[in-house]
Amino acid sequence: MSEETPATAVEALCERVERAGHVALDGLRVEKRADGYALETPAEGADGLDEEGLSAALAEVPAYVTNWHYWHRVGGVGTARRAFLRWCEHAPLEGDADNPGETLAPPSRYEALTDGLEREWGQLAITSRLAGETGERVYEVRHVDDAETAVGDLERLDGPRAARDLTTEDDRGRYRPLKTAPTLVSGWVLPHLSGSDLLETVEFVYPATVANWHRERGGDLDVDHWLETAHRQSGIYDVVDELPREAVEWMADACCVDSQCLRRREWHYEEDDHLSVPGGDGVFPCREPCSLVIAAARKWAILESEREQTWTVELTLSEKNQLEALLEAVADGRVDEIREADLNDGANRYRARYLRAKRAAEGSLFDETGDEDGA
Amino acid sequence: MQALVIVAHGSHLNPGASEPTHAHADTIRDAGAFDEVREAFWKEEPHFREVIRTVEADEVFVVPLFISEGYFTEEVIPRELRLEDWDPERWDSDGTSASEATLEATDVGKTVHYCGPVGTHDAMADVIVRRAESVTGDPDVGEGFALAVVGHGTERNENSAKAIEYHATRIRERGRFDEVVSLFMDEQPEVDDVTDHVETEDVVVVPLFVADGYHTQEDIPEDVGLTDDFRTGWDVPGEVDGKRIWYTGAVGTEPLTAEVVLERAADAGADVGDAIERVRLETGQQTTAVTSD
Ligand code: SF4
Fold it and tell me: Are B110 and B246 in contact (CB under 8 A)?
C-alpha cells in the first residue's frame, strides 16, 4: 500500500458509523447492517465485515476516508461556507448530486489536489491543496493576474484582515467605493489559509457574494428589481423612482456591466420587464441595485428632470470626432493611458487644451439656438 | 451560536469613514465573545441589506455605531434589515434611552436583537473621558481642565443634541473636570465661542462623532479657531484666545468604543463573558494618536 490512511480518520469514521448507522460522501458509503458492516465505493464493495475487517477495508481506500474526515470536520452541511469550500476543489455539491458536471471524485480529486485545484472568484484566484496525508486542505489566494507569478515574487500578506486593507484603494491610490469593481490591486499572496480564513478573506474582499451565490444555487435568490428597490428609498433618495425607464437602461450600462462590476446583475426594471443591457458573466449574482447605483440614480433622476434644448456649435469634422474621442476616453477610464505627446489621440491633453483655447475661450463650446444674432 | 453585526454609515468618498468600525469589530473578534462578527454599512459593503445572510448563527445582535437615535436607527436600518413589525415605539425611548427590541429578519428567519445606538449608551461617557486622557497623555486629567462635548445640534436631528447634553450632564456630575459644557455646530451655544464658555485655561474639545470626516477634520478645527485652513493642520494643544485647546477628533475612533458595542449587545442578552473587562483593559494600553497632520 503506497499511502496509509491515517488511523485517526479511520477511527473517526468508525465512530460515526457506530453513532449514525451510516456515512455517505462523494461515492463512499459505509453502513452498519444486521450482518456486519458494508463498505462501498464506485470501484469496489464488501459486506459482512466485522470491526477489524472494516478498518482494514477502509485502510485500502485512503482518499475516500480522509476526504470524509476533512469534510466531517468542516461540518455545516447545507451552509454556504461548506458549499463554497467544496466548489473550490471541484467536489460535488450537496443537492447537485444528479448533475455533478465537472466535479471530481476523491481519487482523481486527490491527485489534482496535490498540485492544486483552482477557481476564480471575481479577481481572486483560489487554489485548494492537500496538506499532507490527513486530508487537511490549505488554501492560497492571490490576484488572478498573478496566476503565473512565482510566490516569492509576491508580497506575502498576513491573514484576512490584510486582505481587507487591500480592498480600500486601487493601484492609483484612489478609494474603491464598490468592492466588486474590477480594480483590485495585484502583487500579493495569502498562502496557507485554513478554510475559515479563506472564507473570511473572501467575505472581506467581496462581501456577501458567497451567501448570495449559495442562495442562487439553491434556487432561493431573492432578487429585488429596480422599481421595488427605488420605491423603498426615503429621505434624499426618495426621488430615484422618478428615473425614466430608459434611463435605468443607461444606468445599468454605465455602472453594472462586466467592465465596471464583477457581480452578475440579476435585477431588472421589474420582474417581467427586463433590461436589454447584458447582466454580465460574473460567478456571483447581484440581487438588487447597490448603494452606489442608488446614489448615482439620485443624480440622474435630478438631471433627467431638465428640459432638452437645441444647441449650435461650429466645429471641423476632426473637432467633432475629437469631442467623441474625449467622451470615449473618459467613459472607458483611458485618460491616464494616453501618452503625453500622442497628438494623434483626440483625448490627448494638449489636443484637449488646444480645442478649449480655440473653441471655448469664452467659457462654452455651445450656443443656444435662437439667439437673436445667431452668434 | 450568536453573531454580532455592527452597522454604520460608511462613505462612497472617504475611506476613513469605516475605519473605526473595522477597528472595533477586530477588537471584538479578538476578544472571542461572538461566533461571528460582521461590519455592515449604508454606503459600503456588505450593505445592511445583505449582512444577516452572511452569518450562520440564528441569534444576531445588531448594534448601530451611530451617535444618536433618529432617521437611520429608527427608519433606515430596520427597513433595510427587513425587521418585521418594527416600530420605533418598540424601543420605548425618550430620545436617549433605546436599549433593545427583539424582532425577526424576514429574509433569513433569524432572531435579531436590535440594540440602541452606541452613542447614547451610558458607557459612552467613559469613552469621552478616555478620549480626554488620550489627548492629554494624562490618565488623571480633570483638575484645572474644562471639557467641551461637541455635536451637530438640532438642525438635522433633535436627539443628537439630547445625546450631547446627556453625556455632558453625567460627566459633570462626576466632578472630575472643573467645567463640562455642551457645544454645537449649528445652534447656541456654538463651538465657535468655546473660549467664552469656559473659565479654565485648558479645554479638551471632544466631538461626539463616530468617525473623522469633514465635520471633525475641517469644520470644527476652523470654527474653534485652531487653524485658518484645515489643510495646514493645527497644534494639539493649540492656542486660542489665550487658552489651550486640546482637540481630540471624533470620539468614535477611541479604541474603548469597542467596549460600548459589547455593552449594547450584553444589555440585549448576548453572552459576552469577560470580554467587556478584557476590552477595557486592552484598549487602555493602546490610545489613538490625536494629531492633525
Ligand atoms: S447594482 Fe450590482 S451589478 Fe450594478 S454596480 Fe452595483 S453591485 Fe454591481
Answer: no
- The confidence score (pLDDT) of residue A370 equals 55
Q: How far apart are CA B157 and CA B153, in angstroms?
A: 7
The sign of the torsion formed by the CA atoms of A367, A368, A370, A373 equals negative
Q: What is the pLDDT of residues B32-58, one digit of tens each?
A: 999 999 999 999 999 999 999 999 999
Residue nearest to atom 6 of ligand 1 (CA): A290
Predicted pLDDT of residue A98: 47
Distance from the A179 Cα atom to the nearest Cα atom in chain B, whole angstroms: 7
For residue A319, the one-letter residue type is E
Which pLDDT score is estimated for A95?
A: 61
Pocket test for ligand 1, best of A293, A294, A298, A300 (most atoms within 8 A of CB): A293
The C-alpha atoms of residue A282 and residue A73 are separated, in whole angstroms, by 30
Taking one residue from A and the other from B, the number of pairs with CB-CB distance under 8 angstroms is: 61
Please tell me the predicted confidence (pLDDT) of residue B293: 46
Residue A277 CA to ligand 1 center (angstroms) comes to 13
CA distance A337 to B184: 47
Q: Which residues of A touch B (CB under 8 A)?
A: 76, 79, 81, 161, 164, 168-169, 175, 177-180, 203, 207-208, 210-212, 215, 222, 232, 234-235, 287-288, 290-292, 295
Task: Determine the Cα–Cα distance for residues A183 and A260; give it in Å rounded to an integer.
Answer: 9
Q: Are the CB atoms for B219 and B232 separated by under 8 Å? A: no
| Torsional sign, CA A347, A350, A351, A352 | positive
pLDDT for A372 equals 47
Question: Is the domain covering B2-120+254-291 a CATH 3.40.50.1400 domain?
Answer: yes
CATH class of B137-253: alpha beta
Please state, in angstroms and rounded to a whole number, the distance separating the CA atoms of residues A226 and A240: 10
pTM of the model: 0.93
Q: Which residues of chain A have pLDDT under 50?
A: 1-3, 98-100, 371-375
Burial of B71 (0-12, 13-18, 19+ CB in 10 A): middle
pLDDT at residue B157, as a whole number: 72
Banded model confidence at residue B156, pLDDT cuts 50, 70, 90: low
C-alpha cell at A136: 487537511
Of B28, B259, B4, residue with least CA distance to B123: B259
Determine the pLDDT at residue A259: 96
Question: What number does the ligand 1 atom closest to the CA of A256 have?
Answer: 4
User: SS3 string of chain A?
Assistant: CCCCCCHHHHHHHHHHHHHHCEEEECCEEEEEECCEEEEECCCCEEEEECHHHHHHHHHCCHHHHHHHHHHHHHCCCCCHHHHHHHHHCCCCCCCCCCCCCCCCCHHHHHHHHHHCEEEEECCEEEEEEECCCCCCEEEEEEEHHHCCCCHHHCEECCCHHHHHHHCCECCCCCECCCCCCCCCCCCEEEEEECHHHHHHHHHHHCCCHHHHHHHHHCCCCCCCCHHHHHHHCCHHHHHHHHCCHHHHHHHHHHHCCCCCCCCEECCCCECCECCCCCCCCCCCEECCCCHHHHHHHHHHHHHCCCCCCCEECCCCHHHHHHHHHHHHHHHCCCHHHCCCCCCCCCCCHHHHHHHHHHHCCCCCCCEECCCCCCC
So where are chain B's domains? Answer: 2-120+254-291, 137-253
Q: What are phi and psi of A146, to 5 degrees?
A: -100, 15
Q: Do domains B2-120+254-291 and B137-253 have the same CATH topology?
A: yes
